[in-house]
Amino acid sequence: EDQVTQSPEALRLQEGESSSLNCSYTVSGLRGLFWYRQDPGKGPEFLFTLYSAGEEKEKERLKATLTKKESFLHITAPKPEDSATYLCALSTGFQKLVFGTGTRLLVSP
Amino acid sequence: DSGVTQTPKHLITATGQRVTLRCSPRSGDLSVYWYQQSLDQGLQFLIQYYNGEERAKGNILERFSAQQFPDLHSELNLSSLELGDSALYFCASSVGKGNTEAFFGQGTRLTVV
Known about the structure:
The complex is a heterodimer.
Chain A: E1 3-7, E2 10-14, E3 19-26, E4 32-38, E5 45-50, E6 56-59, E7 62-66, E8 70-75, E9 84-91, E10 97-99, E11 103-108
Chain B: E1 5-7, E2 10-13, E3 19-24, E4 31-38, E5 42-50, E6 53-57, E7 64-68, E8 74-78, E9 87-94, E10 103-104, E11 108-112
Parallel strand pairs in B: 2-11
Antiparallel strand pairs in B: 1-3, 3-8, 4-5, 4-9, 5-6, 7-8, 9-10, 9-11
């Protein structure tokens, strides 16, 4: 069964304190790995898509990487406005996204 | 703004009732997906339509149904509502049939009392 596990469940950082979020997955045929950001009560906001091991993508303070078994979302020098829940999702051969339960990130000033 | 529009934003209804949630996809997107998000379960895929046809089905209850119309907007119908159906319901759209980035609406918060 296709499965996504995100860790940690929650992470508290000081402004400027870099860290990484982990997304481990098991899938029969990976068609893409997606990262989303979700603010409370809002819809997920698309961040990145990664398709193959070794691929990396960057956007502002965020960088996503992919291996054959996991993906990392690196946050460099975070700011309070980066506080949100970060969701990882797999796209499989069955046309749907399988989501992890997310990492709640809180960045304090 | 993702370009995906969902209405209504909030809905409060009684057990046993039926409601309809509406979604307008981004201009040019042919796929519409419905997801349910509850506090204890995270985002659960319900169903996908592509250009008017059902393409994939997830954990959608028999009391729930959906359709995509010729103008590509979609409706999710929830009937015989139970307290446990209270959740955020999200619609997402994408250009292709799958495996491409999907853009989410702001959701409909359904409360069943």
